[in-house]
Amino acid sequence: xxxxxxxxxxxxxxxxxxxxxxxxxxxxxxxxxxxxxxxxxxxxxxxxxxxxxxxxxxxxxxxxxxxxxxxxxxxxxxxxxxxxxxxxxxxxxxxxxxxxxxxxxxxxxxxxxxxxxxxxxxxxxxxxxxxxxxxxxxxxxxxxxxxxxxxxxxxxxxxxxxxxxxxxxxxxxxxxxxxxxxxxxxxxxxxxxxxxxxxxxxxxxxxxxxxxxxxxxxxxxxxxxxxxxxxxxxxxxxxxxxxxxxxxxxxxxxxxxxxxxxxxxxxxxxxxxxxxxxxxxxxxxxxxxxxxxxxxxxxxxxxxxxxxxxxxxxxxxxxxxxxxxxxxxxxxxxxxxxxxxxxxxxxxxxxxxxxxxxxxxxxxxxxxxxxxxxxxxxxxxxxxxxxxxxxxxxxxxxxxxxxxxxxxxxxxxxxxxxxxxxxxxxxxxxxxxxxxxxxxxxxxxxxxxxxxxxxxxxxxxxxxxxxxxxxxxxxxxxxxxxxxxxxxxxxxxxxxxxxxxxxxxxxxxxxxxxxxxxxxxxxxxxxxxxx
Length: 531
Hints:
Largest sheet: 5 strands, parallel
CATH class of the largest domain: Alpha Beta
Mean pLDDT: 93
Number of domains: 3
Shape: globular
Radius of gyration: 24 Å
CATH topology of the largest domain: inorganic pyrophosphatase (n-terminal core)
Number of strands: 16
Helix content: 25-40%
Low-confidence stretches: none
Structural class: alpha/beta
Number of helices: 16
């Protein structure tokens, strides 16, 4: 990586991420392309006409919260009352489980959103109780599918929908569009797309093909939204427009915090707020949950880092009564820190370990863990993230199985961050560069923010910033050209005059009517560390 990039070369690299080109909303496939979409639509229309009892079952993450909210908003719009349940992570477990069947008894029709594809036993219980079940999900298929009236999941081999990597909220959005058309109801779909965009980003769907089109349109709609929840959030963050980072790093964690720390229904109620006053109060509750989440996560991450064995190709750690709501985030923190797929489990003291895993690099974590499925009580997820539970007695065998499976698959270790595009000289860090980068937004999964490196950069200034002094503000210089820089969450100290290599992203800093270029520093490599 010694050649320096030109703008033309950078544009070609970024364009190669979109072999199909940029899509717009007119490129969205028909809802009927989904297997069972027409069958599900017909059943829902019949239920509405016959005034049957309908219950929607969601999930406790952002995708599940948004999917549930979309369905409630649709039925509210057509004046049809439905019941809805988001299982509690701690009391009920994930999705459509045996635990919540008593709560949906008496329903004629149950519709899952963002879950259900693995609910074999619960689906059988629905059948026994005379409840027709429509499953809408996007997760990977288990060895045996549940028996249901209709299953809408693009990962089914018979499904003709051209894009497998869509989230639960997108499928819910499509189901609403299909039912709306069948009922000949006048309903504006864009206000629903603004919520779907939140889920696409939060669930880390690849931001290309239709996902990019939906997110781009959804972000524009969010910036103009009159929805009380969105207005309250704009007030809270003092922003009028949103980018993908605003959703992924700030709004999504707030929405997620309710399900992680107490109950995801609080997040649904926030999004459903009918006036700004309720929205502000409900947002305040989410902010409180998120602060507790941050503290809990930091404590467990510190403990978990101390449990890691360096020779494990897949990190698996467990702790007594680690908070189940944050183990997934801790797994992501570990994966980033040790550059390995990581699984974090909580021991509830009753012989069962429950937790989550996050991948690193190109490893398909779902495929690796699936080889140990016989040892697991529950298992689901996708290539980048998994959820599982197992008996304590199987813990050591599980770890050894993962070690063997990882080695057997001959996974290549990620030695270079694939999102590092190439080298830049400071003279080429210009507003023309940031204008080019903007044309390829939104950045996210499948279209990561381009990172660059610059060699032999001199640190002119390095000063602490932030309430806790754990961020650094820099002035860098290379061949007489200077640029400002910021590095977050670091306690490193640099003497003026130190020569380093930098890995960074570039953005524009807008402050008091002035716009400047800024390097967002990912890594600083001291000259003595450079080989």
